[in-house]
Design a protein that fits this description.
The longest helix is centred in the last third of the chain and has 59 residues. A hairpin with a 5-residue loop joins strand 7 and strand 8. The strands form 2 sheets. Strands 2-1-5-4-3 form a 5-stranded antiparallel β-sheet, sandwiched between helices. Strands 6-9-8-7 form a 4-stranded antiparallel β-sheet, with helices on both faces. Helix 12 crosses helix 13. The chain folds into 5 domains: 38 residues; 46 residues; 100 residues, PAS domain (Beta-Lactamase), CATH 3.30.450.20; 105 residues, 2-Layer Sandwich (Beta-Lactamase); 65 residues. The chain is of the alpha+beta class. The radius of gyration is 60 Å and the shape is rod-shaped. The chain has 13 helices and 9 strands.
Length: 403
């Protein structure tokens, strides 16, 4: 019976099942050896309640954190919107370009208005496209040498969409934009300011040429303390000093020793400061020690706020004029003395004339009376020539000698 069972299929199936069951029992025993200690170490119900309580509290904390995170995200979005609003409303053109490609990555509304490009057009440009073609090498060199993290400032030429070229002052700083290194640039249009500066510079150059070319006047500038800051050819011609011998020196070196001892230079500046101007004629000194008579004018120079910036000083050598005036004065005095002598002589002449007139009246009256007598008593015996002589003589002497 057992032999038949050995070769029967059911016998083998039962054996296999028993073998598998035995193997499973062995594995179960092994697992039980490992799991029983752990099962014995499981927390008690109180401990599970405490753990559950902590989990509940942690869940609440996570809920609060999620709420705060949502609020922070909302605030961040609002902040980004505000930043964008501020960026777009900056009154100066601003853009960001990528350092490696020089491509413009963002731009504000002011740049769009000033340069004439749309936002899409701007974002398709590089910073090279904003410059005249001849400036491209300088732009590349400048971008290459731009220090990391440092703010830089420079004056460049920019070209608008319509082709107009303007002068701008660029201020830039390093930024990280969308995870890439870049630079933020602020452009200030200084075209009008630069033109005004060029006009002012040209005017200053013409004025300097005029001042330097004047040789009859010493024209110089003083700082508020009286030190010389400018010098012209007229000053060198009149005073004998070169510019390098006077710039930085005090202007009191042109005064006489006695005037310096009396502190006159400081007094002159004080008057100019208080009254706006000081002018006089007086002796001044040349480099060789000689003196000359000068007309000196000192004018206080103030800025728009009224702050004293220095003095303008103009000196003219009028030595020859003074000598001519002295000669004229001597001649005037001599003429006055001569006039006084003539007046005295005229008085003596008048006295002599009166005396002579008085002494001659008596005989002339006799002649006059005799002429009347001849005309009255002897008119019939006088010829025509005699009568005419008597008639002409009588009125003439009456006009001369009758009181």
């Amino acid at each position: 019976m057992e032999v038949w069972n050995l070769w029967h299929a059911q016998y083998w199936l039962a054996g296999i099942i028993k073998a598998i069951t035995a193997l499973a029992s062995i594995l179960t025993a092994i697992l039980l050896v490992q799991l029983v200690p752990k099962a014995l170490a499981l927390p008690s119900p109180d401990e599970l309640k405490e753990v559950n309580r902590h989990l509940v509290e942690r869940t609440k904390e996570l809920a609060r954190a999620n709420t705060e995170l949502a609020s922070a995200n909302k605030a961040l979005v609002q902040f980004q919107e505000q930043q964008r609003l501020l960026f777009d409303n900056i009154p100066y053109p601003v853009w960001v370009y990528e350092l490696n490609t020089l491509a413009i990555k963002d731009v504000n509304e002011s740049a769009i208005r000033r340069y004439g490009y749309s936002r899409e057009e701007f974002l398709s440009l590089t910073i090279k496209d904003l410059r005249p073609a001849e400036d491209t090498p300088a732009i590349l060199e400048s971008a290459k040498k731009a220090p990391n993290g440092a703010e830089t400032t420079g004056i460049w030429r920019h070209r608008k969409k319509n082709g107009a070229v303007i002068d701008v002052e660029i201020t830039s700083c390093a930024v990280v934009f969308e995870g890439r290194d870049g630079r933020l640039m602020v452009a200030t249009d200084i075209t009008e300011r630069k033109q005004a500066e060029e006009i002012l510079q040209e005017s200053d150059e013409r004025l300097n040429l005029l001042v330097r070319g004047v040789k009859d006047y010493a024209i110089l500038m003083l700082d508020p303390e009286g030190r010389i800051t400018t010098w012209n050819e007229g000053a060198e011609h009149i005073k004998g000093y070169r510019a390098d011998e006077t710039i930085g020196q005090h202007f009191s070196k042109f005064y006489t020793p006695e005037a310096v001892a009396q502190n006159k230079p400081a007094q002159d500046l004080k008057i100019a400061t208080e009254q706006g101007r000081f002018e006089e004629e007086g002796w001044r000194m040349r480099k060789d020690g000689s003196r000359f008579w000068a007309n000196v004018a000192i004018t206080a120079l103030r800025d728009k706020t009224g702050q004293l910036r220095g003095f303008g000083k103009v000196t003219r050598d009028i030595t020859q004029h003074k000598k001519a005036e002295e000669v004229l004065e001597r001649q005037r005095k001599e003429l006055a003395r001569s006039n006084a002598g003539l007046v005295e002589a005229n008085k003596e002449l008048e006295s002599f004339s009166y005396s002579v007139s008085h002494d001659l009246r008596a005989p002339l009256r006799t002649i006059d009376g005799f002429s009347h007598a001849l005309l009255e008593d002897c008119a019939d015996r006088l010829d025509d020539a005699g009568r005419r002589t008597c008639i002409a003589y009588v009125p003439q002497h009456k006009r001369w000698f009758v009181d």
